[in-house]
Input
Amino acid sequence: MGTCKEIYPGIFKIVQSKPRRIAPPVNVYIIAGDDGLIFDAGYGDDTSIQLAGDAINSIQNRNKNWRILRVLPSHSHPDHFSGLKQLKSHYGLKVMLTEQMASVLSNKHAYRNSYKLSTLQKYRYSTVFERISELPLQVVFRTMYKKVYGIAFLQSHDTTVRPGETIAINGYNFTIIHGPGHCNDHIMLYDNKEGILFAGDNILRSIYTWLGPPRSNLQEYFDTLEACLRLPNLKLILSAHGSTIHNPKERIKEIIEYRKLRTRQVYSLVANETHGITFARLLNSIYPRSLERRWLAKGWIIVTLEYLVNNNILTFEGRKIKLGANDINTV
Output
């Protein structure tokens, strides 16, 4: 079956790979049964779709009672939804979306609007010159996303799903869990009997998930991670990137502590500046030697600042970031 492997009885994983500096390898999971489901649609380029199609055929040939009929993304980031349209047109899969995902993925304008910063965020975190200078780069990335990711939008879908509903497949009963933080429309699937969590991008084994405005929220991410810790029988996490997590609660605690450490780092840098600090200086303090890393990583810093400002631990005076009324130990 090539790159499609059975990682748990009736659950298969495909790894769609790209040059790492262009796009991350992404895991696409197939839960086999007479009404089988693909969780995360992956990329939409011809090679990725062919890989998924070969896996579907191989799985169905393995057991004549198995039919892969549905596909559901974990969230509306391009490495998770781009394959939806082609999987539907090539293999007849029914597309399942939440209402929130459907509104974002209906067309390119809705999708782009979902990433627009507010006027206040633009003022705080960039200058007019910076925004103008980034325009050519945005055009390049849009072109690259369309070609490399194979992005395609859907004017309609087949089934609307909602958090709290259960998807039954071949003896598994997966509850849909709303899990915002990384992305505001993120969902996860959890089978309590087997203790299996399809975590999407929320929990990764060896790296920390990307956060960035306006669709990431650090408080919501903490809440999602704490909710995962409370899952009563959690034994195994199947993530959208990387390998299987066999020590789920330990890994979740590591991620929480890492995010708290980064939060205190941002707070400390502001606290050391008597007259406040601009975002540009703060960013340069954390990533002093790498323009590329600054560009890629500034999202988590913005999300962390928003979290601290919302908790009145930091505050803005114009473009200057200063200490707020509350202590860092209140969060």
